Recover the amino acids of this structure.
């Protein structure tokens, strides 16, 4: 089965979907509301499951050349600098860390020219037995299938699932940044990636390309949308007594490059498909960042959807298979991320959590963060054919 799909959203999930569709001989039109295609945000990491999805999309080699190994999952510290667990290279599975723009860029390079249309904000859609039509100000386009990959505030989700609740604030907020590490001394591997766990907060470090490090500080907040006149000064003051190199990373981040976001997720939907419309990535299952799986689950979605379209006899059967395979896994991952976030930013639970981690034998800890050490990382993608040629 081949056809034409409209992908709403030109982020990582949307571009991955276009790449996956190309591999099975479909054509795709990616509609992006921004006037220029790019990826906002700072950094990210991809676990083994996501790297396998990138391999199946045909860009795994480029991703490994672009990303930087990060041992943050194995290096756990306290604000005074003491290690709770420490990763040993060769004994722990590294994540692959990126600036979001770098991963977005390599996916964009794999999308055929002319498939992406920017400056197109979708306002609605309609569908019948023969296909789906997407509408925007001044135009419309019809296709066999529409895939909503337009993020946590998805227009497609609101149009087709009008009764679905809006994104939910999780009582947490985060500051993000990217720092040039060339002037920051590192004599004990601090910049190989780490997570520092404090009462009611944690600080994440990932090394990324070109001598930079991505950092994130996550803590609780009484309400959303609380902002500060000087965001960098605010986060620096909160972390003034934390260990090296945390204050240096914040100082090395340009003032205007410090991003402040509130953490939200979505209540689970009863289905990701309706008619010839499917949701993918954050539009379907936006989750908190505490398991580092947001983009990774989007990559998995893209591969599974393409595999279903390639092997099933019709679109209805393919979408039913996609929903059956992806909804239980992604919703379980979102629940787990939410629970992890509550634990790691709970002041009351901090001492108990630290004691549990400290007492865990190092071999058992390393086993848990091995490439096949947990159910999320063990995922294997369905196989996609080699790409066909489209102009």
């Amino acid at each position: 089965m081949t056809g034409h799909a409209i992908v709403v959203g030109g982020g990582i999930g949307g571009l991955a979907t276009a790449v996956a569709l190309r591999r099975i001989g479909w054509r795709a039109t990616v509609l992006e509301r921004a006037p220029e295609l790019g990826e906002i945000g700072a950094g990210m990491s991809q676990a083994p499951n996501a790297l396998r999805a990138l391999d199946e999309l045909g860009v795994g080699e480029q991703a490994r050349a672009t990303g930087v190994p990060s041992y943050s999952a194995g290096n756990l510290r306290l604000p005074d600098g003491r290690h709770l667990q420490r990763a040993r290279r060769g004994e722990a599975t590294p994540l692959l860390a990126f600036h979001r723009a770098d991963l977005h860029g390599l996916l964009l390079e794999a999308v055929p020219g002319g498939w992406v249309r920017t400056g197109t904000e979708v306002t609605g859609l309609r569908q019948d037995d023969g296909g789906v039509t997407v509408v925007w100000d001044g135009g419309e386009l019809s296709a066999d299938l529409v895939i909503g990959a337009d993020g946590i505030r998805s227009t497609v989700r609101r149009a087709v699932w009008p009764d679905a609740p809006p994104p939910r604030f999780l009582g947490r907020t985060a500051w993000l940044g990217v720092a040039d590490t060339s002037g920051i001394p590192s004599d004990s591997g601090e910049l190989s990636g780490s997570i520092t766990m404090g009462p009611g907060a944690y600080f994440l470090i990932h090394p990324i390309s070109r001598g930079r490090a991505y950092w994130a500080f996550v803590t609780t907040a009484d309400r959303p949308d609380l902002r500060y006149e000087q965001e960098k000064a605010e986060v620096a003051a909160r972390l003034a007594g934390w260990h090296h190199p945390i204050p240096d990373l914040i100082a090395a981040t340009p003032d205007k490059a410090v991003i402040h976001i509130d953490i939200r997720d979505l209540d689970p939907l009863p289905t990701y498909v309706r008619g010839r419309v499917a949701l993918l990535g954050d539009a379907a299952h936006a989750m908190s960042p505490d398991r580092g799986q947001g983009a990774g689950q989007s990559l998995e979605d893209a591969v599974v959807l393409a595999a279903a379209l390639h092997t099933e006899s019709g679109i209805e059967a393919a979408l039913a298979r996609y929903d059956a395979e992806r909804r239980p896994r992604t919703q379980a991952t979102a629940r787990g991320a939410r629970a992890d976030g509550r634990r790691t930013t709970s002041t009351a639970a901090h001492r108990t959590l630290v004691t549990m981690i400290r007492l865990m034998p190092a071999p058992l800890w390393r086993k848990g963060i091995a490439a096949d050490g947990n159910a999320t990382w063990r995922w294997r993608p369905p196989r996609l054919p080699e790409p066909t040629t489209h102009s």
In short: DSSP finds twelve helices and 19 strands in the chain. The mean pLDDT is 93.
